[in-house]
Specification:
mainly alpha, 7 helices
């Protein structure tokens, strides 16, 4: 069963990666770069301070920061425990694929998917009642995660598991915020 799943994963990766078109390489290389998304992070922060009291916005920001640290640690520990080679470092397929980026660390699970989906989920849950278009925040993690297949550094299962871990982690931190932090920041709601 596991071998069949891994074969599907490799075959699907080779197929999806092969759909890449050279004239879009710069776009996907830019999308996959975390610094490209810094303006979005500022937007999240600005929305917190526009939609909530300063105290509540600060607590929400700290919760997002805590989540970012948590997801980074969980992702790193999983990667070194599983030690799955990235597609660009896998000899059996690296001659068949388009490689735009060449990281040398491990692949499972995608830190791009886990971090972007976790942060987006938490920010969405915080802002969904205050910003009608908050669902659009999910464009970021979808593009960010897809870019990892395009540039040749993650298998689909890496992305799917990273996405699920990210969504669940975002929801967990929202629950923790509601349970342990919100009661103390509720006194000065606008």
């Amino acid at each position: 069963m596991l071998e069949k799943l891994l074969k599907w994963d490799r075959d699907t990766f080779v197929y999806l990666n092969g759909l890449g078109i050279e004239k879009y390489d710069v776009f996907w290389a830019t999308v996959t770069n975390i610094s490209t998304w810094i303006p979005l992070f500022f937007l999240f922060l600005i929305l917190f301070y526009l939609k909530f009291s300063k105290k509540e916005a600060f607590y929400k920001f700290l919760t997002v920061l805590g989540l970012a640290i948590f997801i980074t640690v969980i992702t790193h520990l999983t990667k070194i425990s599983v030690a799955r080679l990235r597609p660009n470092n896998t000899e059996e397929i690296n001659a068949l694929i388009r490689i735009i980026k060449t990281p040398t660390d491990y692949s499972f699970f995608s830190g791009h998917a886990s971090s972007s989906f976790s942060i987006t989920m938490l920010v969405f849950l915080f802002l969904r009642k205050k910003v009608k278009w908050a669902i659009l925040f999910f464009i970021w993690p979808i593009l960010f995660a897809m870019s990892r297949i395009y540039v040749g550094v993650h298998f689909p299962i890496d992305i799917i598991v990273g996405m699920v871990v990210g969504l669940l982690s975002g929801w967990l931190f929202y629950w923790l915020y509601q349970r342990f932090i919100a009661p103390y920041s509720a006194s000065d709601h606008p």
